[in-house]
Amino acid sequence: MEKKDIRYRKVYRDLKPLYLDLDDNLARAKKFYEEEEIHSCCREGCSACCSQLVVATRWEAQEAALFLKSLPDFDRYWQNLGSWYAKTKELLQQRPKKEAEWEEFAGTYRRLEEPCPFLFEARCAIYPVRPAPCRLLYVSGSPEACADPDGEFDQLGWFEEAADPALSILLEKSEAGVFPLLVASALA
Ligand code: SF4
Ligand code: SF4
Fold this sequence. Notes:
By secondary structure, this protein is mainly alpha-helical. Helices cover 51% and strands 7% of the residues. The chain has a two-stranded antiparallel ribbon. A two-stranded antiparallel ribbon has the order 2-3. A hairpin with a 2-residue loop joins strand 2 and strand 3.
């Protein structure tokens, strides 16, 4: 398989087809790695990566808020959002204005070891509408590196390339921010 198999731009009016195309590109990237015998350690129920800072778009947060509202245990996630905010707000208030400083800020956030408010029993409660950054994590090595706040991830590089068309469309549609904050604002 060739890398050029990734799809190119279309006009998207809602998220579902965009996510389908993104997932399709990522599936091609996975196949590429499998053919090269480069294996990922990502598994269902493995969730250490869900304590990272997730930066996504307002468009995605609105979709996630609608999905959350439809859940019978919505109250649990609303409460989780409150507890998550209480534990992270001091740090989040210091979030940088310059894009170049976000990587370092993400490292500091990871050291809080605070799980995403939408994680329940090691599963993502909003899995069908999880934002793009949560779709494109695919690492080699060991999950212990993900659980260690100072551990080095080995993200398989072509994943980001395969996600680029979708990411640029998302960023054109709406601004990006800290995902749970944007969801809380969409729910308020
Ligand atoms: S990124 Fe790390 S924690 Fe997340 S599923 Fe993959 S191996 Fe597990
Ligand atoms: S939205 Fe879902 S996949 Fe993403 S960090 Fe939260 S629980 Fe994990």
